[in-house]
Write a sequence for this structure.
């Protein structure tokens, strides 16, 4: 463990990417403050996983913010009237939650301002990004530019840095990096339709990408599937 | 009333600026969808005012999103342990809610995506802005650039336009414009510490700016004060 690098807010969904991202932030010597969102997603299993991972990985604090994104509708992940697809389609998928990363990054920015944190870590990934517009490097650069103008720290010339250490990693590289840092992937939940225990369907886009990641990394897949 | 200009999301706090902004969006021929936020602000009177104003001014819909900004702390407007000041100080005031406009604009962006709306109207004002960094024109331009990359519509070359028609108006000009458009200012709540009925203290920064606006516009001030 290196010396402290100041405070960092880490967005923690309970999935493998954000868990690895938290482990990286801790390894980089930050006092990490994990932030999860209860946005009426289909299952709460990932929130339980997030709380457990925050403790396991050594976060200084963890909080879950409630917000009613489900009331807005429009995504298979928050609107139960829209089915989760089991094979990839064309273009932006129905599992896209409108402006989700923008909303979550904005709330992370608010917490970073309150804590006077120097960094935000986001487990955004542009490789296996499933066609979401708000997972692209140019999007993150634009968010950073906006954040520099939005905040007290930005005005004072000490902008809050948005870090996305997984941005250009493949799923296999994320599996390897997380494994090196001791992330217990059996506790991470990626599945779009996990059950209450966090067990995975094995068929949705998120499961498919995750399973392939372990295979490509040559790491045994510790995921608990309910439908194999 | 002109022909419809498509759908618009209008951020509606219940204050005089956002009410005038809604009236402008309606006058510009938009099908307006008003969006308010229950973010654990000190008083709920402005939310009642928002609901009433949405109906009075002809919004097609109105919804209030709940989010726990108060849990983040850090502002006199959401943290009761921090007193609301009664005279302007130096720099960014304690009434600044960290990243508030960024969070609210992001949620408006999410709703705009769901509704396939063409515009977002925000009653942001750079003149009487009390030193908030996220009320400046350069901030809004940066948010627009980010939004263009964040959204499905942006990717498809039909970006959602952020409009801030009050940006460069003085409070007096806002009073005049709102009066012309039939805004009932007696129903708008600006005070940082309004009581349950929406009556104003007459002493905080927001009251001071509002009162001066009516005086400068030569329009009788219809505000109900509890402390005159």
């Amino acid at each position: 463990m290196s010396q402290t690098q100041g405070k960092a807010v880490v967005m923690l969904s309970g999935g493998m990417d954000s868990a690895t991202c938290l482990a990286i932030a801790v390894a980089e010597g930050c006092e990490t403050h994990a932030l999860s969102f209860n946005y009426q997603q289909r299952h709460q299993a990932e929130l339980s996983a997030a709380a457990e991972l925050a403790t396991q990985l050594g976060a200084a604090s963890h909080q879950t913010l409630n917000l009613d994104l489900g009331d807005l509708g429009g995504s298979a992940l928050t609107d139960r009237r829209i089915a989760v697809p089991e094979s990839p389609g064309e273009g932006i998928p129905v599992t896209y939650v409108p402006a989700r990363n923008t909303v979550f990054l904005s709330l992370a920015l608010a917490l970073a301002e309150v804590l006077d944190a120097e960094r935000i870590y986001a487990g955004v990934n542009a490789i296996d990004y499933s066609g979401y517009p708000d997972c692209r490097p140019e999007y993150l650069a634009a968010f950073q530019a906006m954040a520099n103008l939005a905040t007290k720290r930005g005005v004072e010339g000490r902008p809050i840095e948005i870090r996305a250490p997984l941005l250009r990693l493949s799923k296999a590289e994320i599996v390897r990096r997380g494994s090196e840092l001791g992330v217990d992937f059996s506790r991470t939940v990626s599945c779009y339709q996990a059950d209450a225990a966090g067990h995975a369907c094995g068929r949705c886009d998120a499961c498919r990408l995750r399973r392939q990641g372990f295979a490509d990394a040559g790491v045994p897949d510790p995921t608990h599937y309910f439908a194999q």
The longest helix of chain B spans residues 100-115.
